[in-house]
Each structure stands twice: as structure tokens, then as C-alpha cells.
Specification:
It holds the Pfam family ABC-3. The structure is a single chain. α11 packs across α12. The protein is mainly α. The chain has one domain: Orthogonal Bundle (ABC transporter involved in vitamin B12 uptake, BtuC). The model has no long low-confidence stretch (mean pLDDT about 85). The protein contains 12 helices and no strands. The radius of gyration is 20 Å and the shape is globular.
Amino acid sequence: MSLIEPFQTPFMARALAELIILGVLGGTVGVVVLLRRLAFLSDALSHTIFPGVVAGYLLAGEDGVFWGALAAGIATAALLTLLTRRVAQDAALALLLTTLFAAGVVLVSRRSGYASDLTAFLFGRVLTVTPEQLWQTAAVAAVVIALLAALRRPLLLRAFDPVGAEAAGVRVGLLDLVVNVAVALTVVAAVRAVGMVLVIALLIVPAAAARVLSDRLTVIVPLACLIGAAGGWLGLVVSWEASIGYGLRLASGGTVVLVLVAMYGLAQAAGLVRRRVRLGRARTGLEAVQ
């Protein structure tokens, strides 16, 4: 199985570039999501941008999907930040998720061929990524990663000691809005590639796998980015080889997610070995002291 040959064609090269960028972006934001235990937020945002995706598509076709999703994502992040001041976060998420996703279903059902459109929205079309869409994804990734890097210290303080963060003068509400917007932008950037159903995997799985392999945040973040990018690469290769070599049609986005899950399984196995080695060393040290 060649890791290079499938990407000689332009559309595969663009798909690879898109998934590598999304892997780095998802790995970075995913660590914040993991630290703050915001997995449900990521899942909810992947559904609440649905009406924006549909509205953008109805108004301007494929070119309008990104801008519609962007508007819906930012609006959702702002509404969520406001609602969580008055009600519990899980209740606010459930309210926004059901309301906005239902609105999207109503909008998409107005088209005569809405079933095929709905499939594309839910599961993505990474192989049809255009150069313009690739630049949009790169721009979103650059903005989000730069923002999180600039705010890394207050973000860490907010994650590990929210009471101490408030006492230190950190504007927790504004910081929460920044995190919500960062997650929303990541979902917006990834929705065309893997769809709304699978986008949470790009956020959660690489970060979770990296966390199994290391306890140091300075290692976890780059490792999560590497796992995310490698999962995209290998997923495309597996999908290509299955189609060309064996005549099996495998959805690229779904294959990427399955590869990421397999990498998480390998990380769990490696983490188990790592813990046993550390335990063995600790026992040896204890016996030497005695």
C-alpha cells in the first residue's frame, strides 16, 4: 500500500491538505475541549450550525455553506455563553441543539431532492474540496490556533482552577466565549470534510489518544496534532486503496474517523504498556530502598 501514490491527482492532494490542516486544528482545540470536559459542547455545535449550512447552500450553493455555517456557529457560541449564565450548560446545549437542528431539517426539507443534500451535510465530501475552501480552512486554523496560543495561560488557569481564575481577575465569561467560538469555528471548518455527524471525532479522538500517551501538556498538544494529521492521511490512503485495489467504495470521511479510532486503540495499548513499565520501575526502586 503506497502512502504517496494516491495524492498524485489534484483532488486527492487537496483532500490530504484539508485533512492535515483539520488534524492540526482539531488536535489543538481538542486538548482544550478535553481539559474543560466540553465534548458534549462539540457535539451540540456540530448540529446547531446545520440551519446555517442549509441557509448558505440555498442562497449561494456550495460557496455559501462556509459563510452560513460560520454565521450560525458564532451565533450559537454567543447564545450559549449568554444562556449558561441563567441555566445549566447541559440544559442550554439541549435547548439550542434541538431548536436549531430542527430548523435546519425544516429548511432542507423544502428542496425536492433534500435527501441527497442531507446526506452530504451529515457525512461530508472531502474529495470535492476546492482551492478556495482549502484557503478558508487554513485561515480559520491560523486564527483559532493563534488565539488559543495567546490565551494559553488564562485558559489553563480556567481549566484547572476556575475559582482561582476569577480571583486572579480573569474575565471567565469572556474566556468561555472565546472557547465556544474556537470550537464553533473548528466545527465550521471541518463540516465540509467529514460532515456534522463525524466532526466530533476530529476534536476528541486525537486529543484523547495523546492524553493516554503522555501526562505533559507540552507533549500532548503537538502529539494530538500529529495523530489528527496522520489519521487523515492514512484514512484517505485506506479509502483509495479499497476503491482502486478491491472495488470497495468507502466513504472517505468515515474511513478517516475509523482510522483515528484505531489509532486511539493503539494508544490505549501503548499507554497500558507504559503504565506497567512505570509501575515496575517504581516497585524496583522501592525494593532497592528497602
